[in-house]
Amino acid sequence: MNSFKIACALAAMLLVVSVPGFAVAEEAEIFTVRDVEVDATAEAAAKARDIAIAQGQRIALRDLLRRLTLKDDWERLPQPSGAEITSLIKGFEVEEEKNSQTRYLGKLSFAFKAGNVRSLLRRYDIPFSEIRAKATLLIPVYSTEDGPIIWAEENLWAETWSKSGFAQALAPIVMPLGDLEDIAAISPQSVGTADWNQLGPVAARYGAGDVIIPQATTIDEPGGVITSVDVVQMSANGTSQYSVSFSAATEEETLLEAVNSIGGEKQESWKRRTIIQYGSEDIFEATIVFRSFNEWLSIRQRLADIPSITELHLVGLTVEGAQVNMKIAGSLENLSIALAQSDLELLDATRFLLIRPRSADTAQKATNSFSPAFQQVARAVPGISAPTGYGEATGDIQPWIPGTGSLPVVGGSGDLYYQQPEAGYPSQGQEAEAVRQFEEIAPLGD
Q1: Which of 22-26, 115-119, 282-286, 338-342 has the lowest mean pLDDT?
Q2: Distance CA 149, CA 137 (A)
Q3: Which residues are registered as beta bridge partners of 281?
Q4: Is residue 168 part of a domain?
Q5: Which of 146, 169, 312, 318 has the fewest beta carbons under 10 Å from its own?
């Protein structure tokens, strides 16, 4: 049996698979708010705890809605009643707590029901984003009388950033751990002249796509403190710099103002690029190029992580790639940005899209349509068989109808046989086994 016939069999098996529009893990993280501090007093400890939890729910919802929306819309954000807020909560967790007979102090995290929160924002006609950017690695340099510091415990600049909450944002800002590997790679004296060749590997350790180096200098003035910040931003695409200054009554206040301004502007910039006004969706055909079947499974999961892809249906599959139908909310520009965060790229913004891994060697031979063989296979729905003219023994592959209870599996001899699964559709385990057998006979990419 040739590899094309095997691909036909696999396409038949996978035609019934529909990828959900939202990956559970990614969605849960975006709609979870952590480190919510509460403090409540009442005549009894249990009552104080109840008040604190209700207080925390309201704070967490406020922070979540602000996370998803533009600052210009914050005044329009809904103010639900306590009961309405409770209906939006999926669950909560106590991170820290202290209590007495009349007082409760704690740090809580709340997980919200994503669908209910989306519905709430749509009801108020407030556009929002839920596309998460690749993380930005932030290296906070604080100028002192003894010179610049990064890893010292008394780095108040670093401490202010660590408490900012931007690690949970849509455009996450994370800080290095300061372990031996970080200290060896990043010196306070040389970080200002470092380039992407030096810092790129450090960023990769933290899953970051770019680096920000804000160097802060504080000066005591009559009546307050001035903080000047020289900001260097770098990525594989280049380096940019700018400077800003802030003033406040104390050092702590001016550093906090600087953090909120620099970090907040990064969030606003990202949300302006990815905001989606839901309500209208469009359907596109897409060709997805890959180099192996395992890479296809990885790409399929990454597509499931993109919120603006509300439906994804496989139409056909060959050793060259996959053809899918995608229902998309928002613009193709939104989609292109979201794909880039998953190391995928959109090559043709027409009604028929081409998606591939950003580093794929197959890029040189990628086209907007597959071979005639693929076109024939892709349209053999719901049954599938080897098209006429491709191999002599076309009868080796019999049509398979989804829901009949049979599962096509490639045998070790290269012949196709039918296996009767317990359910009417192939499970993930059955799919994986078929892929394993397929790779043994005709590894994809050969």
Answers
A1: 22-26
A2: 17
A3: 329
A4: yes
A5: 146
Could you identify the residue written with the tokens 């510091």?
A: 149
What one-character DSSP code corresponds to residue 276? B
Rounded to the nearest 5 degrees, what angle is found at the Cα of 228, between the Cα atoms of 224 and 233? 150
What are the tokens at 422?
Answer: 């317990």
Residue that the structure tokens 């925390």 belong to: 56
| Residue whose pair of structure tokens reads 């050793």 in the numeric block | 319
Helix-strand-coil split of the chain, %, nearest 5? 40, 30, 35
Question: Do 106 and 167 lie in a common domain?
Answer: no
Residue 27 counted as domain residue: no
Instruction: Identify the domain containing residue 404 by its residue range.
Output: 3-22+280-441
Same structural domain, 50 and 198: no
**Spatial distance between the Cα atoms of 304 and 20, rounded to a whole number of angstroms:** 6
In terms of domains, do 148 and 211 share one?
Answer: yes
**Which of 112, 146, 170 corresponds to the end of one domain?**
112
d(CA 274, CA 308): 10
Bridge partners, 345 (sequence order): 356
Residues 234, 23: Cα–Cα separation, whole Å: 30
* Residues 322-360: tens digit of each pLDDT: 888 888 887 788 888 888 888 888 875 454 566 667 653
Nearest to 288 by CA among 390, 374, 400: 374
Which pair of tokens denotes residue 150?
A: 């990064």
Local structure of residue 76 (DSSP, 8 states): G
Tell me the C-alpha distance between 420 and 408, whole Å. 9
pTM of the complete model beyond 0.85:
no
Domain end residue (candidates: 274, 303, 320): 274
Domain of residue 172, CATH code: 3.40.50
Residue from 377, 309, 292 nearest 13 by CA:
377
For residue 149 the two structure tokens come to 């510091």
> CA–CA separation, 132 vs 148, rounded Å?
32
Tokens at residue 99, please?
A: 């209590």
Q: Under a CB-based contact definition with an 8 Å cutoff, are residues 231 and 242 in contact?
A: yes
The structure tokens listed for 49 are 């705890």
Q: Examine the domain organization and report whether 141 and 244 are in the same domain.
A: yes
Looking at the structure, tell me whether residues 398 and 331 fall in a common domain: yes
Beta-bridge mates of residue 328: 282, 309
Do both 155 and 195 map to the same domain? yes
For the chain, the distance separating the N- and C-terminal CA atoms, rounded to the nearest angstrom, is: 15
Q: Where residue 311 falls among pLDDT bands split at 50, 70, 90?
A: confident
